[in-house]
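About this split. The held-out portion is used to measure sequence recovery: a designer receives only the structure tokens and must propose an amino acid at every position. Recovery is the fraction of positions where the proposal matches the reference. Here is one held-out target exactly as it appears in the evaluation file.
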């Protein structure tokens, strides 16, 4: 018996990895968060398998499914959105499985921010402009942010910011970022990336909160801002420069 923590990608079933598809297609018990994983992903679950939406379950209730699966010697697919390593509430589930002596495996998925960059036709790291990407969130009726990881400090680094789980605080975020990146900074908000009702909003920092409110976006959205949205850098990566030599292109 084994539990597979599966990153299902941002929502588009065609972005599911081959390994994830193979496991889901042969699973006996499927646990998924209905608020985050689209039903199209569940179409790969075989007929006769037990499918459970865990959106309204607490950790103890989820644990009971692992215990029963072990007793019945059934493999479990625990499907998460995006990649399970990013805000996947993974560690507490692993702790439970370790205590229960249940084997598990983590199956990587495409993170939402990677698909977001593809949708925006942009690179998150631009030579000469920005070479770092910060994945973060803000605290809103949830786990407090560690000291030093507040949005103001992170924005001061000049990195591309990818802000998760914070769309309800868009007005607050704009107010905090304004003195650092300027009101004319470009911000992208992507709602339900890869879903059939996907929505993309791109606007200035000083107008993005209004657009979010007008479109009634209150959840399942990603916020991205950074120098990658500004005009093209005059500097190119040295990787493909004809004068740059490396292991696979020696002199």
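Reference sequence for scoring:
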């Amino acid at each position: 018996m084994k539990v597979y923590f599966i990153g299902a990608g941002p929502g588009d079933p065609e972005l599911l990895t081959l390994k994830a598809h193979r496991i889901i297609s042969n699973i006996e018990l499927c646990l998924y968060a209905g608020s985050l994983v689209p039903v199209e992903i569940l179409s790969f679950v075989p007929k006769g398998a037990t499918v459970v939406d865990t959106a309204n379950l607490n950790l103890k209730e989820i644990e009971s499914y692992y215990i029963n699966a072990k007793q019945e010697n059934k493999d479990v697919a625990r499907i998460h959105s995006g990649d399970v390593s990013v805000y996947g509430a993974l560690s507490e589930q692993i702790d439970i499985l370790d205590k229960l002596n249940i084997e598990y495996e983590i199956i990587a998925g495409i993170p939402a921010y990677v698909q977001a960059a593809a949708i925006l036709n942009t690179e998150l790291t631009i030579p000469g402009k920005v070479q770092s990407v910060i994945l973060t969130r803000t605290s809103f009726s949830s786990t407090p942010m560690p000291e030093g990881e507040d949005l103001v400090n992170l924005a001061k680094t000049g990195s591309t910011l990818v802000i998760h789980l914070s769309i309800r605080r868009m007005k607050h975020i704009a107010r905090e970022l304004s003195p650092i990146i300027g009101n004319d900074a470009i911000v992208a908000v992507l709602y339900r990336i890869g879903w059939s009702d996907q929505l993309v909003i791109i606007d200035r920092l000083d107008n993005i909160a209004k657009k979010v409110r007008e479109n009634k976006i209150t959840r399942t959205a990603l916020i991205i801002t950074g120098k990658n949205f500004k005009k093209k850098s005059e500097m190119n990566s040295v990787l493909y420069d004809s004068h740059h030599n490396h292991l696979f292109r020696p002199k």
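Annotator remark: The beta strands are 2-7, 29-32, 50-53, 76-80, 103-107, 133-137, 160-164, 186-191, 199-204, 221-225.
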